[in-house]
């Protein structure tokens, strides 16, 4: 699989709980942001179109294990890699660090779907042109 992609985020005041620690839910937001940045880096998007219409990537699984806390104004580095590229889905792994310290690890699985606003998403085989970019 491709080498990891890394991005950074500063913990904002709005991201913290009453104890001043980054709220657990923010890790999921950061995973999604890192996924979007990786896809843009590869020339893709979570919402794109081909000749048949819109394609998107609904999430079917998200998980995060926490190792240590981060606080307001800390900078969190988020490393994302594709750990599995299936016929219809992609699984990403995330490693969160702060100043070299392990903070959390997460996974996210998304399924390639044809989307039509009038009906539920239908899973499709990931188009070859997308597979090539995801493998790069």
Question: Can you tell me the overall shape?
Answer: elongated
CATH architecture designation: Roll
Helix percent band: 10-25%
Count of separate structural domains? 1
SS content category: alpha+beta
**The CATH fourth-level homologous superfamily:** Hotdog Thioesterase
Estimate the mean pLDDT confidence: 95
What is the gyration radius calculated from CA atoms? Answer: 16 Å
Order of helices and strands: EHEEEEEEEEH
| The level-1 CATH class | Alpha Beta
- Major sheet description: 5 strands, antiparallel
- Strand tally is 9
Q: In order across it, which strands form the biggest sheet? A: 1-5-6-7-4
SS element count, helices = 2
Approximate strand percentage: over 45%
CATH topology, anyone?
A: Thiol Ester Dehydrase, Chain A
Distance between the termini: 8 Å
């Amino acid at each position: 699989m491709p080498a990891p992609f890394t991005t950074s985020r500063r913990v904002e005041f709005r991201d913290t709980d009453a104890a001043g620690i980054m709220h657990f839910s923010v890790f999921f937001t950061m995973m999604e942001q890192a996924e979007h940045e990786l896809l843009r880096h590869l020339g893709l998007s979570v919402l794109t179109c081909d000749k048949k219409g819109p394609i998107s990537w609904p999430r079917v699984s998200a998980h995060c294990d926490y190792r240590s806390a981060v606080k307001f104004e800390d900078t969190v580095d988020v490393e994302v890699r594709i750990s599995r590229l299936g016929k219809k889905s992609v699984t990403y792994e995330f490693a969160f660090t702060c100043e070299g310290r392990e903070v959390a690890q997460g996974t996210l699985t998304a399924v390639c779907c044809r989307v039509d606003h009038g009906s539920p998403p239908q899973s499709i085989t990931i188009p070859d042109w997308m597979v090539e970019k995801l493998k790069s």
